[in-house]
Amino acid sequence: MADETNDDLIPEEEFVADSTDEAFCDDAAATSSETPESVSKLQAELEEANNRVLRSQAELENFRRRMRREMQDERKFAAQPLLTDLLPIVDNIERAIESAQQSSDQSGLLDGVKMVARQLLAIFEKHDCPRIEALGEDFDPNMHEAIGHQPSDQYESGKVMLVAGSGYRLHDRVIRPAQVIVSKGNDA
Question: Does residue 185 come out as left (phi exceeding 0), alpha (psi in the -120 to 50 range) or beta?
Answer without folding.
Answer: left
